[in-house]
């Protein structure tokens, strides 16, 4: 304990009767350390240090006993507060006032008037009752110290209560006291308490707000009358969303934001497209009439899933808006948006998100119910995934996904509880008070700018119709919909308010409605500030990639001299950097591989592929749960100093900037991280974006991304994407969850040359495959069944010359000196099983069986394989497809139709492999080895 506090004790008059007062100070300290005097802060810190755990976990019994002992040991019976004397009763009353203020800061939101329909009874919150703190009517006109409240130093209790009620239990309910950073809490308190949670808007601002509400309501009425009965998933009941988005765009522009990426589900999407993004009404009408399809898309999608991009004029200049395409999987778009934002930040050299803003619009039930929301929040501050803070807007219809009771859609009071995991402030606001809504929007945008962290606006409103316009929600929600039918729209309520205030005349609101309807009839663009498409230095031209073909020829070869030169750079370590012994052995082996003195392994070939791409001006981004080292200790792209743990990434020494190569050990998520990387790849065609599964089996945790985005995004939306997936795959006797990357599922999704599925069998093939992915103009997802045991297999190696000649081979013919004329059987296979077949054939000394590897399973290389089977091996009578996977899995059923086109009429096509199974693999090593032996024997005959 310092001398300052000791002196404070010597000069104070404390006794046991003041324990309540001191405990109240301590409670205030727990909520906000700055709310008490510095000497008390020091004393409470010392007390807390004697109790292990966090501040909020300290038992109050020992603390209370310490206060009482402190009082008993004091010299006499007077207490002081900040040096100002007061008797014991006055001290207790003052402490009670401070507790009451704190009670409103912590729990005032529970009594806030945020629900336009008043569906729930307010919970009993004793902390908000002055009587709970020992205060009554006789205290109301007594002046008290306001503590840390942003108000005059002393106010009457009646005035204090009026202030905290208006701020914390008015039309806005603020949750921020869960934030541990005192500076952030104090910043929010100042922004809430000084203006009493209101903004004074002038008459023109109020008229502009009414015009935006008129637009929000107007498009819904217009579409309802023009296209009766068609689904549009209207925004009616939540029209305040449109002013929120306008304010975010304009305030963002003033803050320096140049790009905004928006993700939202279907509800209100058409309204946003027309009124915010500036989509032509004529284009929307054509979609309703079935006469419009997106450019470069084949199948298209429903109109309320479509994305859009535009440019909007703000006070800070043009701001580019991009609305992400989104299927009906609601929140799945969240990580996709974040990945797109990160790519745009990278392109701009924007490390903190000053110029690019992610905005996510959530539904209440979806935000509470879907796990990808939590995973995306978890990404928000993680290295490699940080996007400078996301603004989250919840359109809280209070009715869940169809017509369910909100109590059935979650276990929490609010749908936004998940945001507290990253200490995001949450502002609940009544959607029928548009001025309060704008105040909260300004506060949220300023918080994001100040702290570069996530912030949540919970816009509590309602849904005027059911799940869609043909629904009858009153069948299941009669009470709610009686209230909704009797309630005027927010536009009507606000118009009446402005008329009473004298801001508008009696007919002005009707005139605004007619003006908007006339604009729709004329098919005019109605979004404020809409600009023609703007080209900047940061715009991406995707046109060179649209007419590319998968089989276009590219030169992926690299000379040995270039390999050696690059390897010398990669071998250079910082001074005093000491490698782990095993890693040092890997690095020495790579030195020998570059010199041609040692056969090349997979880790070396992969590293060289990245190094050459970086040198040629491409970027490389690799993420996964163990990507820096590699799950199988094969990559070692991030080196760790054995003495102090410092890291060194050799590939960052190649290329113009260190950030041109990024490798991240991601958090334990498949869905959100894969979605993030997909979003990144759709925004940047010049970066080799790779997501790696720790084991390929785990990719099924991201199946929605695969089905709805990776496999079908181009066909539905015309979105190109060069994302690469590394999925370790191979049967090693490790059981059903460490064997199969579910090759059959990817092949089932193949059509229209939408993705590539590759199973490389040598390091050189891997090298050329990586380079081909970037050097070709063809930007399609690449799914790679990567090896496990092959990484160090004695037969699965390459030599330096393999990098200097040729390229990626779609089909690899027999490599041993076997006469084609003597071949009676051709075994076709992919992946690791080839080496099992090769070793067994060598053991049997067979020369009548040829083994051919199909390295690319889609697009299937029919021409190359047909040439081998119908010409070189035309005398063979049998063609066998051999695979490790069970018959109902793997490639067999998915490529059978291709194989039948490649064989002659005289050749019999059959299968060799495991029997059909509901499980991907057996869990017993002995059974595995017997199955493997059997399928190899069957294939060779």
TrEMBL record:
Which terms are listed as keywords in the entry?
A: Oxidoreductase, Thiamine pyrophosphate
A GO BP annotation: tricarboxylic acid cycle
Q: Which domain of life is it from?
A: Bacteria
> What cofactor does this one take?
thiamine diphosphate
Query: What InterPro entries does its record include?
Result: 2-oxogl_dehyd_N, 2oxoglutarate_DH_E1, DH_E1, KGD_C_sf, ODO-1/KGD_C, THDP-binding, Transketolase-like_Pyr-bd
Q: What does this protein do?
A: E1 component of the 2-oxoglutarate dehydrogenase (OGDH) complex which catalyzes the decarboxylation of 2-oxoglutarate, the first step in the conversion of 2-oxoglutarate to succinyl-CoA and CO(2).
Family, per entry: Belongs to the alpha-ketoglutarate dehydrogenase family.
What is the protein's given name? 2-oxoglutarate dehydrogenase E1 component
């Amino acid at each position: 304990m310092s001398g300052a506090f000791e002196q404070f004790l010597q000069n104070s008059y404390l006794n046991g009767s003041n324990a309540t007062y001191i405990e109240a100070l301590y409670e205030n300290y727990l909520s906000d350390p700055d709310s008490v005097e510095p000497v008390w802060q020091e004393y409470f810190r010392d007390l807390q240090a004697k109790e292990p755990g966090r501040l909020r976990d300290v038992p109050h019994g020992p603390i209370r006993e310490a206060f009482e002992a402190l009082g008993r040991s004091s010299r006499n019976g007077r207490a002081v507060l900040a040096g100002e004397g007061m008797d014991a009763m006055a001290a207790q009353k003052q402490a009670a006032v401070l507790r009451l203020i704190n009670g409103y800061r912590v729990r005032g939101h529970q009594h806030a008037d945020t629900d336009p329909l008043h569906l729930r009874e307010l919970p009993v919150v004793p902390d908000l009752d002055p009587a709970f703190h020992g205060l009554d009517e006789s205290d109301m006109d007594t002046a008290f110290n306001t503590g840390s409240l942003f108000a005059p130093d002393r106010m009457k209790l009646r005035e204090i209560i009026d202030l905290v009620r208006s701020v914390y239990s008015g039309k806005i309910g603020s949750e921020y006291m869960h934030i541990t950073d005192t500076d952030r809490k104090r910043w929010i308190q100042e922004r809430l308490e000084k203006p009493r949670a209101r903004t004074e808007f002038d008459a023109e601002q109020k008229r502009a707000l009414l015009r935006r509400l008129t637009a929000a309501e107007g498009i819904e009425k217009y579409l309802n009358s023009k296209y009766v009965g068609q689904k549009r998933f209207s925004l009616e009941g939540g029209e305040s969303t449109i002013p929120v988005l306008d304010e975010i765009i304009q305030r963002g522009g003033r803050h320096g934001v140049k790009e905004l990426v928006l993700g939202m589900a279907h509800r209100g999407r058409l309204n946003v497209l027309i009124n915010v993004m500036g989509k032509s009404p004529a284009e929307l009408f054509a979609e309703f009439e079935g006469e419009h399809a997106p450019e470069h898309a084949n199948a298209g999608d429903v109109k309320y899933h479509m994305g859009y991009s535009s440019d909007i004029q703000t006070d800070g200049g043009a701001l580019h808006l991009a609305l992400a395409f989104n299927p009906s999987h609601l929140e799945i778009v969240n990580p996709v948006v974040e990945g797109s934002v990160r790519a745009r930040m990278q392109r701009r050299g924007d490390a903190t998100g000053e110029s690019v803003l992610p905005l996510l619009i959530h539904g209440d039930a979806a935000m509470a119910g879907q796990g990808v929301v939590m995973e995306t929040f978890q990404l928000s501050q993680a290295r490699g995934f940080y996007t400078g803070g996301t603004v989250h807007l919840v359109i809280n219809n209070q009715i869940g996904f169809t017509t369910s009771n909100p109590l059935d859609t979650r276990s929490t009071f609010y749908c936004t509880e998940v945001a507290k995991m990253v200490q995001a402030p949450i502002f609940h606001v009544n959607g029928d008070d548009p001025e309060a809504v704008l105040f909260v929007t300004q506060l949220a945008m300023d918080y994001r700018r100040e702290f570069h962290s996530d912030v949540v606006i919970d816009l509590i409103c309602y849904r005027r119709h059911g799940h869609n316009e043909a629904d009858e929600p009153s069948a299941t929600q009669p009470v709610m919909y009686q209230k909704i039918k009797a309630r005027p729209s927010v536009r009507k309520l606000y118009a009446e308010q402005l008329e009473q205030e004298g801001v508008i005349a009696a007919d002005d609101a009707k005139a605004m409605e007619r003006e908007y309807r006339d604009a729709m009839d004329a098919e005019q663009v109605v979004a404020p500030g809409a600009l023609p498409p703007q080209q900047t230095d940061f715009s991406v031209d995707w046109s060179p990639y649209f007419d590319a073909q998968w089989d276009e020829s590219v030169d992926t070869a690299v000379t040995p001299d270039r390999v050696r030169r690059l390897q010398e750079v990669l071998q250079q370590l910082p001074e005093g950097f000491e490698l782990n012994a095993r890693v040092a052995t890997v690095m020495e082996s790579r030195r020998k591989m570059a010199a041609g003195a040692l056969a090349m392994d997979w880790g070396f070939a992969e590293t060289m592929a990245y190094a050459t791409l970086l040198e040629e001006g491409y970027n490389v981004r690799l993420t996964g749960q163990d990507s820096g080292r590699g799950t199988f200790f094969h990559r070692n792209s991030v080196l760790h100093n054995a003495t102090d743990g410092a890291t060194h990434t050799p590939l960052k020494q190649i290329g113009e900037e260190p950030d041109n190569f990024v490798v991240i050990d991601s958090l334990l998520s498949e869905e959100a991280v894969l979605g993030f990387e997909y979003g990144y790849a759709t925004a940047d065609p010049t970066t080799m974006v790779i997501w790696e599964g720790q084991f390929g089996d785990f990719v099924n945790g991201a199946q929605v991304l695969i089905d709805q985005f990776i496999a079908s995004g181009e066909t539905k939306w015309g979105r190109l994407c060069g994302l690469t997936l590394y999925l370790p795959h191979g049967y090693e006797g490790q059981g059903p969850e460490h064997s199969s990357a579910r090759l059959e599922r990817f092949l089932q999704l193949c059509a229209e040359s939408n993705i590539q599925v590759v199973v490389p069998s040598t390091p050189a093939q891997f090298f050329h495959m990586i380079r081909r992915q970037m050097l070709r103009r063809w930007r399609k997802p690449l799914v790679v069944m990567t090896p496990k045991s092959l990484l160090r297999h004695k037969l699965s190696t390459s030599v330096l010359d393999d990098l200097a000649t040729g390229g990626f081979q779609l089909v690899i013919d027999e490599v041993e000196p076997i006469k084609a004329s003597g071949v009676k059987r051709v075994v076709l296979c992919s992946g690791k099983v080839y080496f099992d077949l090769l070793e067994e054939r060598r053991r049997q000394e067979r020369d009548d069986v040829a083994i051919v590897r199909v390295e690319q399973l889609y697009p299937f290389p029919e021409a190359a394989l047909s040439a081998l089977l119908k010409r070189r091996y035309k005398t063979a009578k049998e063609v066998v497809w051999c695979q490790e996977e069970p018959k109902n899995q793997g490639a067999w059923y998915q490529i059978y139709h291709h194989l039948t086109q490649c064989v002659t009429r005289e050749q019999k096509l059959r299968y060799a492999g495991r029997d059909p199974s509901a499980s991907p693999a057996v869990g017993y090593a002995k059974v595995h080895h017997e199955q493997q032996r059997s399928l190899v024997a069957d294939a060779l005959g």
